[in-house]
Amino acid sequence: MRKVYICSPYRAKDGAELDRNIDYAQQLTRQALEAGLAPITPHLYMTQCMDDKKPEERARGMAAGLALLKGCDFVIAGVKYGITEGMDREIHTANMLGIAVIDANQIKRHLEYEEKQQERVASDYAKLHKCKHCYERRLCSLMGHENCCTASACTAAYKRAYEYALSHIREWQET
């Protein structure tokens, strides 16, 4: 499961705005869960044990949140109510680390794009390595066919190579 960092406003000028910001962070977290992601939303839980109004506690909370951000696959930025100072630091940190920042309204589109990109990588891998996945490879070489899998009839090896690539893409991307 992919880890995503939820970046949205927390600080507020009054209780009603704070409630709105917390509701929004919860909506974004729920949206990420429903998309099959593992969301990290530090401002929903760190504020339960630290006082955001105390500068030293806020700084510790922000530092801990940024440390969590570094281990995420991408950041979901909830900008519906603007970008706060804290959000700006999170977005800047993600950009410096090369972690994609996705607008909350674009999660579905981003996931679809990544899926298509993975399919292209798997297809390219399968085209190049299908002979390694061909169960008949030895038989073909014994019969004098040097590159059996290049024939259009060998779709089973391509499928095996494609499935292998899809199951290992995340692993390859991490190295």
Describe the fold and architecture.
The chain has helices spanning 15-34, 42-45, 55-69, 85-97, 107-129, 137-142, 155-174, and strands at residues 3-7, 38-40, 74-77, 100-103. The longest helix is centred in the C-terminal third of the chain and has 23 residues, at 107-129. Strands 2-1-3-4 form a four-stranded parallel sheet, sandwiched between helices. The chain has seven helices and four strands, in the order βαβααβαβααα. Helix content is 58%, strand content 9%. Strand 3 (74-77), helix 4 (85-97) and strand 4 form a beta-alpha-beta unit. Helix 3 (55-69) runs parallel beside helix 4 (85-97) and helix 5 crosses helix 7. The model has no long low-confidence stretch (mean pLDDT 84). By secondary structure, it is of the alpha/beta class.
What's the alpha carbon Rg, rounded to whole Å?
A: 23 Å
Give the mean pLDDT: 84
Secondary-structure element pattern, one letter each: EHEHHEHEHHH
User: What's the tally of helices?
Assistant: 7
| Multimeric status of the protein | single chain
Based on Cα principal axes, name the global outline: elongated
How do the strands line up in the largest sheet?
A: 2-1-3-4
Portion of residues within helices:
55-70%
End-to-end Cα distance: 17 Å
| Total number of beta strands | 4
Uncertain residue segments: none
How big a fraction of the residues is strand? 5-15%
| Strand-pairing-aware structural class | alpha/beta
Main pleated sheet = 4 strands, parallel
